[in-house]
């Protein structure tokens, strides 16, 4: 097997600090805003600072000969659309492992360990779906698969609002299993098309940015869902 190597580049320390601090501050600002640990204007200031740091990184990347993340990646349409799609969809699905155990414990009265175990069908469905994604993509293509499975995931998440403690356990577990299969199909399809058109020179950087986007969107999904819960908690809490 040929040993393909790329030229060694100096590490972009300044770009790493600008980009890394931007992500940390943005995620922290969303969490501070949701948890109401500090005043709202402080959380909004942290978020605004993170945006300024991101803009500073973009300016830095345009001038640096070897930036941490090359902006030329976004000239590839499938990559830019894939990154945006990953961020948007994982904001919605990333909160499921956080909200479902809360609903099962607080709303349905299950213990913490039972509620955690009831999320297992999601993982099982995700693993099983890996073996069927290729056939689905060959049959429907990327466009129909991604549009259809995204709508289906939205409907599956919405139907959980109709669940009640009186329902049999299997009626809770089966939708979680199906949801896991749908999310796995969506993620696999989106990840492959995101990296499909990148050149050999950009593949490594594109894969790194995709991994960062996935983790960031999941953390933001949890933070935003916590913020929404805090908002509705304030509306429903009776004033003494």
Automatic annotation (TrEMBL):
Coiled coil: none annotated. It is found in: Cell inner membrane. It comes from the Bacteria. The chain crosses the membrane at residues 39-58, 79-102, 108-129, 141-162, 168-188. GO terms for cellular component: plasma membrane. Gene3D superfamilies: MFS general substrate transporter like domains. Its main location: membrane. Keywords: Cell inner membrane, Cell membrane, Membrane, Transmembrane, Transmembrane helix, Transport. Pfam families: MFS_1. It is a multi-pass membrane protein. One of its GO terms (molecular function) is transmembrane transporter activity. InterPro entries: MFS (IPR011701), MFS_trans_sf (IPR036259). PANTHER family: BLR6921 PROTEIN (PTHR42718:SF46), MAJOR FACILITATOR SUPERFAMILY MULTIDRUG TRANSPORTER MFSC (PTHR42718). This is High-copy suppressor of rspA. It comes from Raoultella terrigena (Klebsiella terrigena). The gene is hsrA_4.
